[in-house]
Specification:
Number of strands: 5
Distance between the termini: 91 Å
Number of helices: 9
Shape: globular
């Protein structure tokens, strides 16, 4: 009788422990972990900064994005908003937030709206990728897909080269998508480059279903950002979208010099 009671007690404890463990796992499981890595270098003027942030705030609460989140297996994603400039300047503006519907999305947007704007020196895309990768690796969350969504208006000119940073992220099963901002005419004084979208294609993005959607006019910020979020949340392959504006690299195009930003920076200071 004692032995039967002991066995029953052990089974009860095992059941409770298993239920708690499953509940804990459920609380940390999401369909997607998404880092929004946003350029705040001085090459981004205040109007571009404002539009960039508002693009994300408006996109995350849009009905299309909310619907895409709801169609996931779990119906929830985790999002973090990180701002970056030079190699030692990456700041998490809004940490990991679970978004499972309109209310949570609006709370995320409101939190982001309340944060002050700032600008900083240099452009380290590699630093942004390294910081975003670390953010995902230490999130304590589990998901089938892990994505870094990096936006910026220039090539890497500070920190380590961008290709090794990209490759490190890809080796950890993280996909990188790009939103190159191409509003200014290329100018060696500000180290803006022509065909920034091609630079992103060749040097920055990678992983299953990765894509680039360039912004070439002010009124494209919100629709481009919304489109990108929908594609990331739904896990859509850009190749399968006949009306997709994301770029696909032609096989006969010469690969972009992934050190072009570093070379422009060196040439600028060699002349001075």
């Amino acid at each position: 009788m004692v032995r039967s009671s002991l066995i029953a007690a052990c089974l009860l404890i095992a059941t409770i422990t298993g239920t708690q463990s499953q509940s804990q796992r459920s609380a940390t499981e999401v369909d997607l972990q998404l880092v929004l890595a946003v350029d705040i270098s001085y090459s981004m003027d205040p109007e571009e900064q404002r539009l960039q942030r508002e693009g994300y705030m408006e996109a995350i609460v849009s009905p299309e994005v909310i619907e895409a989140i709801g169609r996931g297996l779990l119906g929830r994603i985790a999002v973090s908003y990180l701002e970056w400039a030079g190699s030692t300047d990456q700041q998490v503006v809004v940490g990991w937030r679970m978004i499972d519907g309109k209310a949570a999305a609006e709370a995320f947007a409101a939190e982001l709206r309340a944060k002050p704007y700032r600008r900083a020196f240099r452009t380290s895309v590699s630093g942004a990728l390294d910081a975003s990768t670390a953010l995902i690796e230490t999130s304590g969350l589990t998901s089938q897909r892990r994505v870094i969504d990096v936006s910026g208006d220039g090539a890497n000119n500070n920190g380590r080269p961008v290709e090794p940073a990209r490759d490190d992220a890809l080796s950890k099963r993280i996909t990188i998508n790009g939103l190159p901002i191409m509003l200014k005419r290329p100018d060696n004084r500000t180290m803006d480059i022509a065909n920034l979208d091609q630079y992103y294609e060749d040097c920055v993005v990678g992983g299953p279903g990765s894509f680039v959607i360039p912004i070439k006019s002010l009124d494209e910020f919100v629709p481009a950002t919304r489109r990108k979020l929908i594609m990331e949340i739904a896990g859509l392959d850009p190749v399968r979208l006949p009306d997709d504006q994301g770029s696909i690299v032609p096989v006969d195009r010469v690969k972009t010099d992934c050190l072009i930003g570093e070379r422009l920076w060196r040439d600028r200071w060699d002349r001075n």
